[in-house]
Amino acid sequence: MAEAVEARLEANRRPALSIIRDLAIAVAVIVLIWLGLRVLRSETALDALGPLAGKLVQALIGIVLGVVGIWALFVVGNSLVELLPARATTFVRPYLFVGPAIAVVSIFLVAPAIGTIIQSFTEVPEGEGPLYNYAQAFTDPALQVALRNNAIWLVLAPAGSLLIGLAFAGLVDRVKRESFAKAFIFLPLCISGAGVAVIWRFIYEWRPPGQPQIGILNAFVTALGGEPVPWLQEIPVNTLALIVAFIWIQTGFAMVILSAAIKGVPIELMEAARIDGAGELQTFLRVVMPSIRGSVITVFTLSAIAVLKVFDIVYVTTNGNFQTDVIANRMFNEMFRFRNFGFATALAVILLVAVVPIIVINVRNLRRQGIGA
Amino acid sequence: MRKYRWLWLAVAMAMVVAACGGDGGDGATTTAGDGAATTAGDGATTTAGEGGAAGDTGYEHLDRAMAGEFEGTTVDIVAQWVEGEEENFNAVLDPFREATGIDVQYEGLPDYELALQTRVDGNDAPDLAQIAQPGKMASYAADGVLVDISGWFDVDRLREEQVEGFVDLTQVDDGVYGVYYKTDVKSIVWYPVAPFEEAGYTIPTTWDEMTALSDQIIADGNGNPWCIGIESEAADGWVATDWLEDIVLRTAGVDFYNQWWKHEVPFNSPEVLAAADQMAAIWFAPDYVYGGNTAINATNIRDVANPMFDAAGPQCWFQKQASWIPEFWPGNRDVADREAWANPPGEASSFFYLPGIDPAVGNPVLGAGDMFVMFTDGDRPEVRALLEYLATPQGAQAWIEIGGFISPNTTVPTEWYTTYPNTDLVPILNNADAFGFDASDLMPAEVGAGSFWTGMVDWVAANGEGTEEIFQSIEDGWPAG
Predict the structure, then answer these.
(1) Which sequence spans correspond to the domains of chain B?
(2) Contacts with B11 from chain A: Cβ below 8 Å
(3) B340-351 per-residue burial string, b: 16 or more CB within 10 A, e: under 16
(4) Is B20 an 8 Å CB contact of chain A?
């Protein structure tokens, strides 16, 4: 067997000319990329083109470098690896393709994560033990509120978006212009979190009684004869109001995944159920639901992770006031406003630890579905 | 054949390495070349000593700069001033640019504090930067990124010329890390002039007169006396901290006030709680504030005065806010041309000094200010020269004359202030019995930009209930050390 492979690889050996050509291409690509980067780094290289054209050309170079350059690097790398002895080639090639990804993740994710964990134990006031920041985190009264709120979010937000998304996915399956209906539900997902927060801030806007209510919700309330409600100040309505904004975003995501899963349920199975006399609801609960269980778990866990990271909605609407604070917002404040690196990193680690079980559930779920080994 | 492949590969590797190495070397050359090119270009357009004011400022580096010694060098400076204010600041920098031939690159950064922090963290600090919060300056100084200017800057002269207290704010231990450039007076109350006079009201000169007038307005059925709102995006609550500070200054005096922000006395000292009660007597008294406490928390500072300029007459009458606020009034907002403002300050509305409370304390003024700090090493005399320039009256003259600028430098001739409201503000500043710098800017950020703000928001949400608990929790949260 091994000899056969060897023989085939030997047969693939190419004449010296093609090797020189490959090398020339490799060198040319590297030089081109290097030149491109130099132009991008230089502040003056494109000045001759004028301010607008210069910027456009710069952007164009950036796009070409980013898209074509990466591709070219892989191709060139591959052709270089093929110059190695055959056995080495088969050994090295996978690393050539996986390596950059591993390197990028290591440099930008793993290393900072380790640094964060270390910092959360070492950045403590003089004379305090390494657990100081964590002790603070769990005794600080304001943070207790944030922890409690994160728990409320975790219970309500993923479940809410899952249920509504599931309902839409089930219903939209029967709609004539399905993609049109889906696009509408999906749209909020395309808006940045901060943008969503601004929209909902307007929806919840409160003006003193007697003034024209510019918030649509209070406009309704007053039109029906009620007193305007300060949605973002009233505890605990305000936290629920923020969760609604989150569900509004996340529902589209849940719907798309679940809708695809529902379409994957074999039609024969549904027909068999119906022939056996199952009603619509029964079919959905007993046949469809078990079939899409994996997707449901995926949606739920991904939503849960998004909830733990929730920041922009809170930051823009209430900035954590009126007992609506969440850990991520507090972390931002500690980091960028108070410069408490120790405390902020401890909060980051707490969030990380909270996310781990959810990721474990997700990975197990994927394995059960046969995705990933 | 196969062994030659290794050779080829080695050659390729060598070329890659060479290319990478060349990158670094070439980069350096390019920078140097660019620098030289700039020098030549600028030198050609500016003749030495064009300003003609060489050698008479009394500041060493500035005099040398005026003599053209640093022509062709570049200094970059950043501040939070954008758009109109950016033009004003450039108007101040232009005479310096012309006189010295130094290329001063000014950049106004939006979302300023975070932007500056990011640049500093990224090793891309500007030469000079504006900072509003002395606490921020102190933390940069503690990080070792700021230049201690006391070795070469004439700090004694600065101390003599500036309003008392400013230089102290730039000191950390024995070092001086900043130069105050701009100040603002917060202790003023705006009111709508024409309806006010029509109603026959007179400007209160004592706190009691002010509350009596408030009662009068309610009794006359003229709406609510006070327009208050503390919502301010990520900085909710700061308006309330200003109020409390103004009252602490008036009831407990500036000495106590300075002990208070230094945390030499507890945050929730009896004096402070008494001041809070004084404040609550306005903020949470029935009918005193337009929309009540919910409106205080819900109303953005930019919208506070809307009811004051209501078409049906003022729904509320007083807004305590610094002199920049008219920009945000209805009819003025988004109108770049001040001449076209619907509610021009000084005509549609004017201000009175927030009266003193305790005659023994007198009439203090609460204010704030902007300083410049230096990030790059002082070996660059052109940077030093610009910092010195900004300390002189001339370094602010253009902006003072445009308006919207008050210098902490008392040697600025008062006749330079020709625009309202500074014509009326500068006398308040000059006649003040004491100057208190905005305490929330001086406290550690955890308090001054954190628990003090949020505590005030909670206090308002509770309509003034639980004062002691809220102030106690701010005290408890004061960072150790």
Answers:
(1) 60-185+368-422, 188-366+433-476
(2) 23
(3) ebebbbeebbbb
(4) yes
Q: What superfamily does domain B188-366+433-476 belong to in CATH?
A: Periplasmic binding protein-like II (3.40.190.10)
Domains of chain A plus CATH, in order, are 2-122 (no CATH), 133-368 (1.10.3720.10)
* ipTM of model: 0.79
CA dist., res. B235 & res. B241, Å (int) = 11
What token pair was written down for B117? 């922090």
- A15 Cα to chain B: minimum distance (Å): 9
Distance between CA A74 and CA A90 in Å, rounded?
15
Pairing of strands B171-172, B103-108: unpaired
Which residues of chain A lie closer than 8 angstroms to B297, CB-CB? 230, 233, 321-322
Smallest CA–CA separation between A233 and chain B, in Å? 8
B19 touching A, CB under 8 A? Answer: yes
Tell me the Ramachandran region of residue B463: left when phi exceeds 0, alpha when psi lies from -120 to 50, beta otherwise.
left
Domains B60-185+368-422 and B188-366+433-476 agree in fold = yes
Looking at domain B60-185+368-422, its CATH architecture is: 3-Layer(aba) Sandwich (3.40)
Nearest residue of chain B to residue A136 (CA atoms)? B477
pLDDT in tens, A323-368: 999 999 999 999 988 888 999 999 999 999 999 999 999 889 888 8
Residues A186-238: pLDDT tens digits?
999 999 989 999 999 999 999 998 888 999 999 999 999 999 999 999 999 99
Residue B192 touches chain A, beta carbons under 8 Å: no
By the 10 Å C-beta count (0-12 exposed, 13-18 middle, 19+ buried), B85 is classed as middle
Chain A contacts of B292, Cβ < 8 Å?
Answer: 208
Binary contact (A208, B294; C-beta < 8 A): yes
Closest Cβ opposite residue A83 in set B9, B461, B479: B9
